[in-house]
Amino acid sequence: MEKLDLRESERLYQEALGLIPGAILGIRRPYNFVPGEYPIFFESAKGGRVTDVDGNEYIDMLCAYGPIIIGHREEEIDDAVVEQMRTKGFCFSLTQSMQNTLAKKMRELIPSAEMSLFLKTGSDATTTAVRIARGYTERTGIARCGYHGWHDWCVEVKGGIPKKLYEDIHEFHYNELDELEDIMKAHGDDMAAVIVTPVGHPLAEKVQEPKPGFLEGVKTLAERFGADLVFDEIRSGFRFGLGGAQKEYGVTPDLSVFGKAMANGYPISAVVGREEVMKVAADRVFISSTFFPNSLEQIAALKTIEILERDRVLDKVREKGRRFGDQVARMVAESGVPAEFSGAPLLPFVTFPKDRNGLYKRLRTAFYTQVIRRGVFLQPYHHGYVAYRHTDDEIDRAAATVGEALEEIRKTHLD
Q: Would you say the C-alpha torsion 387, 389, 391, 394 has a positive or negative sign?
């Protein structure tokens, strides 16, 4: 399969290097894909497809890293936002009433959501949850498991951050309850919170579901040592179910954070939790932003949730994810390639287990090169997503592409 024509993407990238540090922020930079094979700039999108600036069209299985739960340019949502913009406005010195409407909807749907705060990004939400937990418990330590954003306390790249800003953060691995217990025993008197993704999605590694008793054990340890339990549902919320993964798995935390699929691409996140804990944000803990109360994103969230409920969207997303996952799992098993498939039906990911000789790196690069050349947009180091507007034909085409890519790398790297 021939390399894509990416000349305009490359031109814009070279231009951007002189305008913006790194040309593009963080995870969207070319080295996070396959440099020279993936587009760098998109032009437009609709439904389950996206088009780059060179006119190449792709089945979008990354969904903007998760926010697109229904589809790109969803007219019913966009129309509601435009109506708000044209008839009432959205950025004021005071808050508009849909704040209350959205908070009541969150309380109705999410087990932990007795009260809510609305922000803009996932990192805003996780950092706010940590601040609330520290304010409520009057402690400092945080046990963390998973990716929680780019703020000082949790970012993995430590450049520019004094060590004292993260020296009270203690990491443990997903599904390793003994590691958390050791942390709590060593620092329990000062532990403010345990923050964990209810579904495990470590960078470039298999997606993991909780082992029997893991989430329950995390909650028990948090309670035993007087720490708040925080679920980071930025990825799982409004995708695993309207009540989040916490409802799916039957474990209710003290605090939870939501974002991404909550508004189908509009920038909003939320911290929700027990009233007693959340109320510290009324006085003892300060949280404020010029733009947090803006109503366009709240309107988008309300309309997104309305569609998710009305059209049984998440049931259908699961069905599409199973359709994709069943095909891909069979192809991976039959391929003869040392590859693994995880995360189906909602967070599908093809990974390559590490080996001493580094073959897995070459296989990963070759596989994702073949996938993008065939018009399917996935990410080598991050799981994918399924959207409601993906058609059965697109799902089947994306699955077939995985099979074709596996066959190609088997012939070129393993025969």
A: negative
pLDDT at residue 339 is higher than 90: yes
Dist CA 18 CA 14 (whole Å): 7
Q: Which tokens belong to 36?
A: 């020279």
| Separation of alpha carbons 325 and 313, rounded Å | 18
Termini Cα distance of the chain: 18
**Is 271:129 a contact under the CB 8 Å cutoff?**
yes
| CA dist., res. 32 & res. 379, Å (int) | 8
Which of 280, 301, 283, 279 has its CA nearest to residue 120? 301
How far apart CA 96 and CA 84 sit, in angstroms, is: 11
Rounded (5°) CA angle 410-414-415: 90
Q: Which residues pair with 142 in a beta bridge?
A: 169, 193
Q: What predicted TM-score, i.e. pTM, was given to this entire model? A: 0.96
Domains and CATH numbers, the chain: 7-72+313-414 (3.90.1150.10), 75-310 (3.40.640.10)
Report CA-CA distances (Å) from 10 to 30, 31, 374: 10, 13, 19
Q: How many helices (DSSP H) and strands (DSSP E) are in the chain?
A: 12, 13
- 57 bridge partner residues: 51
For the CA atoms of the chain, what is the radius of gyration?
22
pLDDT for residue 415: 82
| DSSP label of 121 | S
* Contacts of residue 364, Cβ cutoff 8 Å, sequence gap at least 6: 351, 352, 380
Residues 6+ apart with CB under 8 A from 232: 122, 126, 146, 148, 195, 196, 197, 198, 256, 257
How much of the chain is helix, strand and coil, in % rounded to 5?
45, 15, 40
For residue 350, the SS3 value is strand
**Mean pLDDT for the chain overall:** 97
The 3-state DSSP class for residue 310 equals helix
pLDDT tens for 200-253 read 999 899 999 999 999 999 999 999 999 999 999 999 999 999 999 999 999 999
Location of structure tokens 């590691």: 179
For the CA atoms of 205, 207, 212, 214, the dihedral, rounded to the nearest 10 degrees, stands at 60
Name the β-bridge partners of 194. Answer: 143, 229
